[in-house]
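Progress note, project year one: complex with fructose -6-phosphate.
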Amino acid sequence: MITYFDKLDLELEVFMCGIVCAVSNRDISSILLEGLSRLEYRGYDSCGIALFDNKELNRIRSMKRVLDLKKQLIEYQFTGCIGLAHTRWATHGIPSYNNAHPHFSSNESGKPHIALVHNGIIENYEDFRDSLENIGYRFESQTDTEVLVHLLNHLYTGDIFDTVQNVMKLLKGSYAIAVFCSDEPDRIVGARQGAPLVVGVGEGENYLSSDSLAISDKVKEIIYLEDGEIVDLRRHCINVINKDGFLIEKLRHSAVNFVLTSELGKYRHYMQKEIFEQPMAVADTLHGLDSLSMEIFGRGSSKLFKTIDSVLIVACGTSYYAGMTAKYWIESLAKIRVDVEIASEYIYRDSVPNVNSLVLAISQSGETADTLSALKHAKSLGMKNTMSICNVSTSSIVRESLLNYITRAGIEIGVASTKAFITQLTALFLLSISLANSRGLLTNDQEIIFLKDLRHLPSSIGAVLSLEPFIMEWAEYFSSKENVLFLGRGRHYPIALEGALKMKEISYIHAEAYPAGELKHGPLALVTEHMPVVVVAPNDALLEKIKSNMQEVRARGGNLYVFADKYSKILNDSGIKVIHMPECYGILSPILYAIPLQLLSYHTALILGTDIDKPRNLAKSVTVE
Ligand code: F6R
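Model obtained:
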């Protein structure tokens, strides 16, 4: 059993589609499928495998699960010592059998010549499609991948490594590819440009994968490819060239065999398990923290924090809501202006750069394409003070940032983020008090109190988790509803947003969140007896305000479901149901109030019978725009 700290070093990379390939002298079909199974939790809509058996290239694809590929392999008796396997999450072209990878391009005799699996997007694929069609290539899919495989075939020089090198110069986009050519059946060529790709060094066999997790139990060492690098993978040798075409020595990292925590134990879903892992995840994230004088955000952070005059946060989804919460903390404690930008919006608008700003990317996976682009965009605008808060230490976003804080949530399997969010908030609070400290705005006593409060978090979270039975009772009612409104104020508004997102994602119930003061400016029109309204109402400076907002809801017949603390004096009444939180949490309360909302969504979805860990249409991490 490995510890949370071991997990930190697992160098997991998270992405949407999955690539697993091998060059061996034994039948690797079942090993490749096992690798795909290890990536299944990230979500996919189709899968496939191509195997070369010394004579011909065979392929099996499926719109079902990897298990179906296994069944078909047995049925068709396909084997091979070299192969490419893939799970697809549709980007170009609908989820369909023909769009599933691997894609083939055949020679003149009609035999498959080149096989390709691909993650990411080739942006300029349309530039090639027509001309390839004009010279006789027939397309059976709507994918950019099939255009690429025909292009490789068309430009094949007799050496697939050279061919990939030439073709890469023509491509635009973010991608990772693995290519096999039946004329050179002892090698697979891989290339990375914007999407993760790793090489696994085995004994007498070598692997290529979009994630070390898929192959970590088969190899001794892992090599992380960088953008622009191309690898020539053979059984006994691995050569990598950089973007300028020079052969390079790559660092080899010991592979840590990560046994996927497939043991759900008493839990029914990974999401539930991960919610209950939160005390440990927070404790691990704070491990070793004795004082704020340590350079916990990286070398030079104390000096840099003194020079910045604002913070620009870029993130997506749940990580964006963590950033929104941080705005309240940083502005109030450190008196530094904070702008929080949805990464996909920030990239494409004319913003006014401030070179004295700290650009902070928040991302669980560290591979989210929009967040990575936003970070690069900020740098291109001259903002060089960059930092990430991330759960994957080897991810692209971490590598792209000057300073980093690695949350230690451990791998998060449920698509809907829970423990990653809570550890992000923990790290962000730590950043807020560190910034305050660097500006002399924190007394010694305050530092001691805040650090003590942070260390108390795991046990506070444990107490909140014990509310589960009460929340389960509410879930019964929510599961019969089509719409839910979430309200919060101040630093709890982002928590209401996160509660609504969780509800949408896993129960498919339409949920909206508003800052409660906005009710009368529009959303009040939605409130009827059929619309449950969830309120986050801790005893803070805005309590009386939110109580008035609750009255506005009650006056329209709305039913209130309130999370409050004992001192709020909000009690069960007609149309008002209250769950009292075990303690009063002060400035840290957003972290604690997020947890009952996670449980409410989870139990509502459980009653509705949705695919909680793999909600429809969603992938664990979004490595395409
Ligand atoms: C929601 C969720 C997503 C992610 C978002 C960003 O439960 O998980 O909204 O937060 O896709 O992902 P990361 O944090 O990996 O950049």
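The longest helix spans residues 444-465.
The pocket of fructose -6-phosphate is lined by residues 316-319, 363-365, 368, 371, 416-417, 501, 505, 621-622 (CB under 6 Å).
No further modelling is planned for this target in the current period.
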